[in-house]
Amino acid sequence: MSDQTPYYVAFSYMLGIGPVHFAQLMQRFGDPKSAYQATTKDLYKILGRNLAEKFDTFRKKCIPHSIVKYLLTKNVQILHQGSSYYPKKLVHIPDPPICLYLRGNINILHEHPDDFIAIVGTRKPSSYGKETTRQCVKLLCEYDYTIISGMALGIDSIAHSCALDNGGKTIAVLGCGIEVVYPHQNTHLFKRILDCNGAVISEFPPPMTTMKGLFVSRNRIVSGLSKAVIVVEGTEKSGTLITARYAAEQGRDVFAIPGEINSPLSRAPNLLIKNGATIITSPQDILESYNTEIKSHVRKTILNSVDAHEKMVLEQLIHESSYIDTIARTVNMPIPHITSILTSLEIKGFIAKNDKGEYYITNGYT
């Protein structure tokens, strides 16, 4: 542990001194210990009189080394801005957290960080939103992407759970301290993430309960850690739009899954698409955006499990999604015969039809 660690922690425990003030203090004093020990008068110039005096009162009661000792006894790992374990993606966002507190597998933050994808959405999803989330997560896990979300009810929880169901990796970013399970309905999910080699992280002091504004701050970390953010469902006032905005500001990709124009839950993703987000009409669109290499063993498995005519159709769909008449022309079969084959493949779960009427290989079978 660095001798600066207790001072990073102390600043992160001080309400009112966030990433922006902390950056100003580092620019002026050079390191956390020097800033922590600066005179109140010197702090006035950066924090202003009121905040400097509040900080002075705080540090008279705070014992930084005791806090660190307590956290270590609770198996809480501390990742501060000077730590080699601090995620490099967060270093370059406009307001990087002073510290991250972590429970679980610390190595997950450094295992292919360029393959982290966030999935966010409403707390009250429709059956369409639930199923779409599961399809996306299942495919992404098949290709070893790590799923990031905020462990809220709804889409977040489904994303985390589905990742674990498919043997994938997931990281939950909390809007409270990591000693607090919120919402309480996710107590089992919280434990399951830790038991399955995932991680739970937060920038807030581990004992901190939920407060207004913390979830907005949490959202910038969800997007900051990720290569891309996928928005499933949300209203026009949804917090998912805040996450998407952070993603755009941080230079991350934003994907959105379209929905019915009359559904309030479609307003967030449809608005994002209107404003330039990449539309997802099938889970494969995500892989295609990153030119993800198709797993040959998966292709072989599906092609060996169908008859000759089904194989011809699937080989066509492996290359690209297609309309029924295009498939019929390509494989030189009558449309009624193709319709029967497509129905059989849909029942088997190998293919699906997107909202444009195109058929595509589904559920990771490419």
UniProtKB/TrEMBL annotation:
<dbReference type="Pfam" id="PF02481">
    <property type="entry name" value="DNA_processg_A"/>
</dbReference>
<dbReference type="GO" id="GO:0009294">
    <property type="term" value="P:DNA-mediated transformation"/>
</dbReference>
<dbReference type="InterPro" id="IPR041614">
    <property type="entry name" value="DprA_WH"/>
</dbReference>
<dbReference type="Pfam" id="PF17782">
    <property type="entry name" value="WHD_DprA"/>
</dbReference>
<dbReference type="InterPro" id="IPR036388">
    <property type="entry name" value="WH-like_DNA-bd_sf"/>
</dbReference>
<feature type="domain" description="Smf/DprA SLOG">
    <location>
        <begin position="79"/>
        <end position="290"/>
    </location>
</feature>
<comment type="similarity">
    <text>Belongs to the DprA/Smf family.</text>
</comment>
<dbReference type="InterPro" id="IPR057666">
    <property type="entry name" value="DrpA_SLOG"/>
</dbReference>
<feature type="domain" description="DprA winged helix">
    <location>
        <begin position="305"/>
        <end position="352"/>
    </location>
</feature>
<dbReference type="InterPro" id="IPR003488">
    <property type="entry name" value="DprA"/>
</dbReference>
<protein>
    <submittedName>
        <fullName>DNA protecting protein DprA</fullName>
    </submittedName>
</protein>
